[in-house]
Amino acid sequence: MLTVQEFNQEFANSEIHFYTDSHGLACVELNNPMGKASLALHGAHIMSFIPKGQEALLWMSEKSYFEAGKPIRGGIPICWSWFGGHPCDSDLPSHGFARISVWEPIAGGNCADGATFLELALTPGLIANEFKTNDFLVKLRVEVSEKLSVALIIDNCSDKDLSYSAALHSYFNISDIENITISGLDGKPFIDTLSDTNHIQQGDISFVAETDLIYLDTEDTCIIHDPGFKRKIKVSKVGSRSTVVWNPWDAKAQRMPDFGDNEFHEMVCVETTNAESDARTLAPNECHSLQVIIESETEG
Ligand code: BG6
Fold first, then answer.
1. Is the N or the C terminus of the chain less surrounded, counting Cβ atoms within 10 Å?
2. Ligand 1 pocket, residue 50 CB under 6 Å
3. Does residue 78's CB lie within 6 angstroms of at least one atom of ligand 1?
4. Which of 169, 170, 254 to mutate for ligand 1's pocket (most ligand atoms within 8 Å of CB)?
């Protein structure tokens, strides 16, 4: 892997800058007149996104680890090649190995619409031996303008099928979980993973307790309505027919070492996924892209 200085020589321009952060992680900032984002190469983890002149859209825990082998709590963890627990080996870490592996920058520059882009790659040579699987090329393409676009592109380079589940596990910065609502999932079936029961969503989602829901058969945009911050956050997606909505509430927050006891008030996860019946199998040479586009608008 190249050093931060070498990445700067290869990919930096006036809008792309690699640096080592206060935790010693190699990071990159994309900054243009429309917006600013930062990523850690550890996990290809998007740590912040701030459209110019606005508040941060993504939330980061003050208790997060920033250490090799541990996921970062907040921002957008990239969950691959499994979402949640591993389907057959409970010793393997939650949400796959992509978020605890160090990715490699492969391209950066400017799009025709003025957005700044960066591409990172994860290949079998970059993952720990315990996670070895069929040959693959996974790319993360990030585009920053007044919107943030994140695409996880999975390419099955092996001669066998590649089965996986995945999430762009986005943590949003909100004024208070008890004052927001989420629209866009009315009438959709969902699994309540806390009770392992199936339901149909009636109207908008609001929050009064721990929430861990997997919505199925939905390609729709979700909107987080946040009157406290006078804004709505629009979460659109491509290549996904499932959406996860999560907030740990107080008791679970207290059980999580990397999550502050009261931080559940400030965040909600609306995750763009390929989960449950939306898990994917790619034939040899097949490719799939899971993409989320995040933007905010003033509201009320
Ligand atoms: C969500 C899951 O996607 O991620 C929850 O639906 C889980 O069940 C949460 O608790 C956080 O997972 P982790 O592994 O980052 O603690």
1. C
2. no
3. no
4. 169
CA dihedral 292→100→137→132, nearest 10 degrees, is -140
Whose C-alpha lies nearest to ligand 1, atom 7? Answer: 84
Q: Which domain holds residue 87?
A: 4-298
Neighbouring C-alpha atoms within 13 Å toward the C-beta of 120: 29
Q: Is 246 in the pocket of ligand 1 (CB under 6 A)?
A: yes
Res 132: pLDDT: 82
Q: Is the pLDDT of residue 300 over 80?
A: no
Q: 20 CB less than 6 Å from ligand 1?
A: no
d(Cα 24, Cα 31) in Å, to the nearest integer? 21
Q: Is the pTM of this model over 0.90?
A: yes
Per-residue pLDDT tens for 37-51? 999 999 999 999 999
Number of structural domains the chain divides into: 1
Q: Please report the atom of ligand 1 found closest to the CA of residue 71.
A: 15
- Range 263-269 average pLDDT: 98
The verdict on the CB of residue 169 being under 6 Å from ligand 1 is yes
pLDDT at site 299: 85
Compute the distance from residue 45 Cα to the ligand 1 centre, in Å.
16
DSSP 3-state helix, strand, coil percentages of the chain (rounded to 5)? 10, 45, 45
Residues labelled catalytic: 169, 271
The DSSP output letter for 160 is: S
CATH of the domain at 285: 2.70.98.10
